[in-house]
């Protein structure tokens, strides 16, 4: 259930600023040509990084981002 809540939060925040969010076969979502995989702090990029360069992990339970990892809570600032 928590995974679904993370994904709903991500989609709602991006929709609030007018971005179109689509499901993807590579990651969880694709937004403006960028692929996003949503998960907890232990989520790895193996699923998306092998196939695409513009791939980002959006992780819950982390304070600081690095490289292609974005803390999930930062999406709340888009609201």
Question: How do the strands and helices of this protein lay out in sequence?
Answer:
Blueprint: H1 2-16, E1 22-23, E2 29-31, E3 34-39, H2 46-49, E4 55-59, E5 69-71
Parallel strand pairs: 3-4, 4-5
Antiparallel strand pairs: 1-2, 2-3
General description of the model:
The protein has 79 residues and is of the alpha/beta class. It has one domain (2-78). It contains two helices and five strands; from the N terminus they run αβββαββ. The protein has helices at residues 2-16, 46-49; strands at residues 22-23, 29-31, 34-39, 55-59, 69-71. Strands 1-2-3-4-5 form a five-stranded mixed β-sheet. Strand 3 (34-39), helix 2 and strand 4 form a beta-alpha-beta unit. It is globular, with a radius of gyration of 12 Å. The chain starts with a helix and ends in an 8-residue tail after the last strand. The relative contact order is 0.20.
Tags for this entry?
alpha/beta, 24% strand, 5 strands, 24% helix, 2 helices, 79 residues
Main sheet characteristics: 5 strands, mixed
| Strand count | 5
What is the succession of H and E elements? HEEEHEE
Mean of residue pLDDT? 90
Q: What oligomeric assembly is this protein in?
A: single chain
| C-alpha termini separation | 23 Å
* Overall morphology: globular
Q: Provide the β-strand percentage band.
A: 15-25%
Count structural domains. 1
Number of separate helices: 2
Helix content: 10-25%
The residue ranges in which pLDDT falls below 50 over 5 or more consecutive positions are none
Please state how the strands of the largest beta sheet are arranged side by side. Answer: 1-2-3-4-5
């Amino acid at each position: 259930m928590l995974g679904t809540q993370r994904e709903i939060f991500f989609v709602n925040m991006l929709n609030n600023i007018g971005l179109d969010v689509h499901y993807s076969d590579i990651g969880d979502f694709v937004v403006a040509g960028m692929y996003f995989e949503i998960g907890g702090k232990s989520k790895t990029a193996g699923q998306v990084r092998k196939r695409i360069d513009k791939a980002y992990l959006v992780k819950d339970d982390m304070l600081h981002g690095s490289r292609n990892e974005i803390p999930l809570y930062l999406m709340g600032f888009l609201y």
